Amino acid sequence: MHKLRALIASIVFAAFGLGSVAHAQSAEDRKRAAEAYDRGVQAFMEDDYAAAAHFFETAYRYAPAGVALLQATSMHAALGNELRAANLALRLVNVHGEEGLDTSEAEELIAEAKEKYALVTVTCDAACTVSAAGAVQAYTTFFLEPSRREVAVVADFPGGKKSAKIKPEAGQTYDLAFEAPPPPAPTEEAKPETVVIVQQPESRGVHRAVFFSSLALAAAAGGGAVATGILTNNKRDDYIEARDSGADLATQQSLYDEGKRLQRATNGLAFSAAGVGVFALVMAIVTDWSKDSKDQEKKGSKPEVTTSVTRNQIGLNLEGRF
Asked: How many CB atoms are closer than 10 A to CB 69?
Protein backbone atom coordinates (compact mmCIF):
# COMPACT_ATOMS: atom_id res chain seq x y z
CA MET A 1 0.00 0.00 0.00
CA HIS A 2 2.79 2.42 0.95
CA LYS A 3 4.70 1.60 -2.23
CA LEU A 4 1.66 2.23 -4.41
CA ARG A 5 0.94 5.51 -2.62
CA ALA A 6 4.52 6.69 -3.07
CA LEU A 7 4.48 5.93 -6.81
CA ILE A 8 1.17 7.66 -7.32
CA ALA A 9 2.28 10.61 -5.22
CA SER A 10 5.49 11.01 -7.20
CA ILE A 11 3.49 11.29 -10.39
CA VAL A 12 1.10 13.78 -8.79
CA PHE A 13 4.03 15.80 -7.44
CA ALA A 14 5.69 15.99 -10.83
CA ALA A 15 2.42 16.86 -12.56
CA PHE A 16 1.00 19.62 -10.37
CA GLY A 17 2.68 19.66 -6.93
CA LEU A 18 5.54 21.99 -7.78
CA GLY A 19 3.50 24.16 -10.09
CA SER A 20 0.59 24.79 -7.69
CA VAL A 21 1.91 24.63 -4.14
CA ALA A 22 5.56 25.56 -4.57
CA HIS A 23 5.08 28.25 -7.20
CA ALA A 24 6.41 30.89 -4.78
CA GLN A 25 9.74 29.10 -4.43
CA SER A 26 12.72 29.85 -6.61
CA ALA A 27 13.51 27.67 -9.60
CA GLU A 28 16.58 26.36 -7.80
CA ASP A 29 14.54 25.36 -4.73
CA ARG A 30 11.95 23.59 -6.89
CA LYS A 31 14.73 21.71 -8.64
CA ARG A 32 16.26 20.61 -5.34
CA ALA A 33 12.85 19.61 -4.01
CA ALA A 34 12.19 17.44 -7.07
CA GLU A 35 15.60 15.79 -6.78
CA ALA A 36 15.11 15.06 -3.06
CA TYR A 37 11.63 13.68 -3.71
CA ASP A 38 12.93 11.37 -6.45
CA ARG A 39 15.61 10.10 -4.08
CA GLY A 40 12.92 9.50 -1.45
CA VAL A 41 10.91 7.40 -3.92
CA GLN A 42 14.04 5.43 -4.84
CA ALA A 43 14.84 4.78 -1.15
CA PHE A 44 11.26 3.67 -0.56
CA MET A 45 11.44 1.24 -3.47
CA GLU A 46 14.52 -0.21 -1.80
CA ASP A 47 12.63 -0.53 1.53
CA ASP A 48 14.97 2.05 3.14
CA TYR A 49 12.21 3.89 4.98
CA ALA A 50 14.58 5.97 7.13
CA ALA A 51 16.33 7.43 4.07
CA ALA A 52 12.99 7.87 2.33
CA ALA A 53 11.61 9.85 5.29
CA HIS A 54 14.71 12.05 5.27
CA PHE A 55 14.47 12.85 1.55
CA PHE A 56 10.71 13.48 1.66
CA GLU A 57 11.17 15.97 4.52
CA THR A 58 14.04 17.60 2.63
CA ALA A 59 11.83 17.99 -0.42
CA TYR A 60 9.14 19.57 1.77
CA ARG A 61 11.62 22.11 3.21
CA TYR A 62 12.66 23.23 -0.28
CA ALA A 63 9.10 23.36 -1.63
CA PRO A 64 6.34 22.83 0.97
CA ALA A 65 3.98 20.64 -1.06
CA GLY A 66 1.56 18.47 0.93
CA VAL A 67 2.39 15.35 -1.10
CA ALA A 68 5.98 15.32 0.21
CA LEU A 69 4.75 15.76 3.77
CA LEU A 70 2.23 12.93 3.25
CA GLN A 71 5.01 10.54 2.24
CA ALA A 72 7.26 11.63 5.14
CA THR A 73 4.38 10.95 7.56
CA SER A 74 3.83 7.48 6.12
CA MET A 75 7.55 6.62 6.33
CA HIS A 76 7.81 7.62 10.02
CA ALA A 77 4.65 5.66 10.81
CA ALA A 78 6.14 2.61 9.10
CA LEU A 79 9.34 3.05 11.15
CA GLY A 80 7.39 3.24 14.42
CA ASN A 81 8.29 6.91 15.05
CA GLU A 82 4.82 7.61 16.41
CA LEU A 83 5.50 11.07 17.91
CA ARG A 84 7.27 12.32 14.78
CA ALA A 85 4.61 10.86 12.51
CA ALA A 86 1.82 12.42 14.61
CA ASN A 87 3.43 15.88 14.52
CA LEU A 88 3.87 15.70 10.72
CA ALA A 89 0.27 14.52 10.46
CA LEU A 90 -0.92 17.59 12.41
CA ARG A 91 0.74 19.90 9.92
CA LEU A 92 -0.45 17.89 6.96
CA VAL A 93 -4.11 18.04 8.01
CA ASN A 94 -4.10 21.66 9.27
CA VAL A 95 -2.04 23.22 6.47
CA HIS A 96 -2.57 20.97 3.45
CA GLY A 97 -5.97 19.42 4.24
CA GLU A 98 -7.64 21.15 1.30
CA GLU A 99 -5.18 20.05 -1.38
CA GLY A 100 -7.21 16.95 -2.28
CA LEU A 101 -4.78 14.50 -0.64
CA ASP A 102 -5.79 11.31 1.14
CA THR A 103 -5.24 12.28 4.78
CA SER A 104 -7.11 9.36 6.33
CA GLU A 105 -3.93 7.75 7.65
CA ALA A 106 -2.77 11.11 9.08
CA GLU A 107 -6.11 11.58 10.86
CA GLU A 108 -5.83 8.11 12.39
CA LEU A 109 -2.34 8.93 13.65
CA ILE A 110 -3.60 12.17 15.23
CA ALA A 111 -6.52 10.40 16.96
CA GLU A 112 -4.19 7.79 18.48
CA ALA A 113 -1.63 10.42 19.52
CA LYS A 114 -4.24 12.47 21.42
CA GLU A 115 -4.63 9.59 23.83
CA LYS A 116 -0.90 8.97 24.32
CA TYR A 117 0.58 12.47 24.22
CA ALA A 118 -0.12 16.05 25.30
CA LEU A 119 -1.41 18.34 22.53
CA VAL A 120 -0.01 21.91 22.60
CA THR A 121 -1.31 24.75 20.45
CA VAL A 122 0.66 27.99 20.45
CA THR A 123 -0.73 31.27 19.16
CA CYS A 124 1.50 34.30 18.60
CA ASP A 125 0.26 37.78 17.77
CA ALA A 126 3.31 38.23 15.51
CA ALA A 127 5.75 36.02 13.64
CA CYS A 128 7.50 33.71 16.08
CA THR A 129 9.53 30.52 16.28
CA VAL A 130 8.29 27.99 18.82
CA SER A 131 10.43 25.58 20.79
CA ALA A 132 9.46 23.11 23.49
CA ALA A 133 11.64 21.00 25.76
CA GLY A 134 14.65 22.53 24.01
CA ALA A 135 13.62 21.45 20.49
CA VAL A 136 12.42 23.79 17.76
CA GLN A 137 8.94 22.85 16.53
CA ALA A 138 8.23 22.97 12.80
CA TYR A 139 4.60 23.83 13.44
CA THR A 140 2.79 25.76 16.17
CA THR A 141 0.56 22.79 17.02
CA PHE A 142 2.44 19.71 18.21
CA PHE A 143 2.45 16.74 20.55
CA LEU A 144 4.75 16.37 23.57
CA GLU A 145 5.74 13.29 25.52
CA PRO A 146 4.08 13.16 28.95
CA SER A 147 6.42 14.31 31.69
CA ARG A 148 6.34 14.65 35.45
CA ARG A 149 8.57 17.68 35.18
CA GLU A 150 7.64 21.08 33.84
CA VAL A 151 8.55 21.76 30.25
CA ALA A 152 9.30 25.23 28.90
CA VAL A 153 7.47 26.35 25.79
CA VAL A 154 9.21 29.38 24.28
CA ALA A 155 8.03 31.79 21.58
CA ASP A 156 10.96 33.58 20.01
CA PHE A 157 10.02 36.95 18.51
CA PRO A 158 12.35 39.29 16.61
CA GLY A 159 12.27 41.65 19.59
CA GLY A 160 12.65 39.08 22.38
CA LYS A 161 11.27 35.90 23.89
CA LYS A 162 8.17 34.91 25.84
CA SER A 163 7.80 31.56 27.58
CA ALA A 164 5.46 29.45 29.67
CA LYS A 165 5.89 26.22 31.60
CA ILE A 166 3.54 23.27 31.45
CA LYS A 167 3.56 19.73 32.84
CA PRO A 168 2.53 17.61 29.81
CA GLU A 169 0.02 14.89 30.58
CA ALA A 170 -1.33 12.28 28.21
CA GLY A 171 -4.68 13.20 26.70
CA GLN A 172 -4.46 16.83 27.83
CA THR A 173 -4.64 19.88 25.59
CA TYR A 174 -2.71 23.09 26.26
CA ASP A 175 -3.53 26.33 24.49
CA LEU A 176 -0.82 28.96 24.91
CA ALA A 177 -0.99 32.51 23.61
CA PHE A 178 2.03 34.80 23.48
CA GLU A 179 2.22 38.50 22.79
CA ALA A 180 5.32 39.92 21.22
CA PRO A 181 7.38 41.99 23.65
CA PRO A 182 7.25 45.73 23.09
CA PRO A 183 10.01 47.09 20.91
CA PRO A 184 12.96 48.51 22.82
CA ALA A 185 12.71 52.18 23.64
CA PRO A 186 14.58 54.25 21.12
CA THR A 187 17.90 55.33 22.46
CA GLU A 188 18.57 59.01 22.50
CA GLU A 189 21.12 59.98 19.98
CA ALA A 190 24.18 61.50 21.50
CA LYS A 191 23.93 65.23 21.19
CA PRO A 192 27.04 66.91 19.87
CA GLU A 193 28.89 68.70 22.59
CA THR A 194 28.94 72.45 22.37
CA VAL A 195 32.51 73.54 22.06
CA VAL A 196 33.17 77.12 23.04
CA ILE A 197 36.19 78.49 21.28
CA VAL A 198 37.68 81.44 23.06
CA GLN A 199 39.75 83.46 20.66
CA GLN A 200 42.88 84.69 22.30
CA PRO A 201 44.02 88.17 21.42
CA GLU A 202 46.72 88.12 18.85
CA SER A 203 50.15 88.37 20.37
CA ARG A 204 52.80 89.97 18.25
CA GLY A 205 55.63 89.61 20.73
CA VAL A 206 56.71 89.98 24.34
CA HIS A 207 56.18 93.08 26.39
CA ARG A 208 58.76 95.87 26.25
CA ALA A 209 59.37 95.46 29.94
CA VAL A 210 60.99 92.07 29.34
CA PHE A 211 63.55 93.59 26.96
CA PHE A 212 64.31 96.54 29.24
CA SER A 213 64.66 94.21 32.22
CA SER A 214 67.11 91.95 30.38
CA LEU A 215 69.02 95.02 29.18
CA ALA A 216 69.22 96.37 32.73
CA LEU A 217 70.45 92.99 34.00
CA ALA A 218 73.12 92.91 31.31
CA ALA A 219 74.19 96.46 32.24
CA ALA A 220 74.26 95.59 35.93
CA ALA A 221 76.31 92.46 35.30
CA GLY A 222 78.69 94.44 33.09
CA GLY A 223 79.00 97.19 35.70
CA GLY A 224 79.67 94.64 38.39
CA ALA A 225 82.35 93.02 36.27
CA VAL A 226 84.05 96.42 35.74
CA ALA A 227 83.88 97.23 39.44
CA THR A 228 85.34 93.93 40.55
CA GLY A 229 87.95 94.23 37.81
CA ILE A 230 89.09 97.54 39.32
CA LEU A 231 89.16 96.04 42.79
CA THR A 232 91.15 93.06 41.46
CA ASN A 233 93.81 95.36 39.94
CA ASN A 234 94.02 97.36 43.16
CA LYS A 235 94.43 94.20 45.18
CA ARG A 236 97.17 93.06 42.77
CA ASP A 237 99.04 96.32 43.34
CA ASP A 238 98.70 95.90 47.12
CA TYR A 239 100.11 92.38 46.89
CA ILE A 240 103.13 93.47 44.78
CA GLU A 241 103.85 96.35 47.15
CA ALA A 242 103.69 94.07 50.20
CA ARG A 243 105.99 91.54 48.53
CA ASP A 244 108.55 94.13 47.49
CA SER A 245 108.53 95.80 50.91
CA GLY A 246 109.31 92.54 52.65
CA ALA A 247 106.00 92.20 54.49
CA ASP A 248 105.43 89.01 56.45
CA LEU A 249 104.20 85.94 54.56
CA ALA A 250 100.77 85.93 56.25
CA THR A 251 100.02 89.42 54.95
CA GLN A 252 101.19 88.51 51.46
CA GLN A 253 99.09 85.31 51.44
CA SER A 254 96.01 87.19 52.58
CA LEU A 255 96.39 89.81 49.83
CA TYR A 256 97.01 87.05 47.27
CA ASP A 257 93.88 85.08 48.29
CA GLU A 258 91.74 88.23 48.23
CA GLY A 259 92.99 89.04 44.74
CA LYS A 260 92.16 85.53 43.49
CA ARG A 261 88.63 85.79 44.94
CA LEU A 262 88.03 89.10 43.24
CA GLN A 263 89.42 87.70 39.98
CA ARG A 264 86.95 84.78 40.07
CA ALA A 265 84.08 87.17 40.81
CA THR A 266 85.14 89.35 37.89
CA ASN A 267 85.23 86.41 35.51
CA GLY A 268 81.80 85.19 36.68
CA LEU A 269 80.21 88.58 36.24
CA ALA A 270 81.81 88.96 32.82
CA PHE A 271 80.34 85.64 31.63
CA SER A 272 76.96 86.56 33.17
CA ALA A 273 76.99 89.90 31.43
CA ALA A 274 77.71 88.18 28.12
CA GLY A 275 74.86 85.68 28.60
CA VAL A 276 72.33 88.28 29.68
CA GLY A 277 73.47 90.46 26.77
CA VAL A 278 72.65 87.68 24.30
CA PHE A 279 69.25 87.22 25.98
CA ALA A 280 68.61 90.97 25.74
CA LEU A 281 69.44 90.83 22.03
CA VAL A 282 66.89 88.03 21.49
CA MET A 283 64.28 89.95 23.47
CA ALA A 284 64.90 92.98 21.29
CA ILE A 285 63.98 90.88 18.26
CA VAL A 286 60.77 89.35 19.70
CA THR A 287 59.53 92.41 21.63
CA ASP A 288 56.24 93.94 20.49
CA TRP A 289 57.25 97.57 19.93
CA SER A 290 53.75 98.55 18.74
CA LYS A 291 52.29 98.93 22.25
CA ASP A 292 52.08 102.50 23.46
CA SER A 293 53.08 103.78 26.82
CA LYS A 294 49.47 103.83 28.09
CA ASP A 295 49.17 100.05 27.61
CA GLN A 296 52.37 99.61 29.53
CA GLU A 297 51.12 101.72 32.37
CA LYS A 298 47.92 99.66 32.57
CA LYS A 299 49.79 96.37 32.79
CA GLY A 300 52.33 97.53 35.35
CA SER A 301 55.19 99.85 36.08
CA LYS A 302 58.57 99.46 34.46
CA PRO A 303 60.80 97.03 36.39
CA GLU A 304 63.73 98.66 38.25
CA VAL A 305 67.17 97.10 38.66
CA THR A 306 69.54 98.17 41.42
CA THR A 307 73.09 96.97 42.05
CA SER A 308 75.35 97.04 45.09
CA VAL A 309 79.06 96.29 45.28
CA THR A 310 80.84 95.72 48.59
CA ARG A 311 84.18 94.31 49.55
CA ASN A 312 82.80 90.78 49.97
CA GLN A 313 79.80 90.59 47.60
CA ILE A 314 77.97 92.01 44.59
CA GLY A 315 74.16 92.28 44.70
CA LEU A 316 71.51 92.62 41.94
CA ASN A 317 67.90 93.52 42.76
CA LEU A 318 64.95 93.48 40.25
CA GLU A 319 61.67 95.15 41.28
CA GLY A 320 58.42 95.79 39.42
CA ARG A 321 55.51 94.01 37.63
CA PHE A 322 55.34 92.51 34.13
From this structure: 24
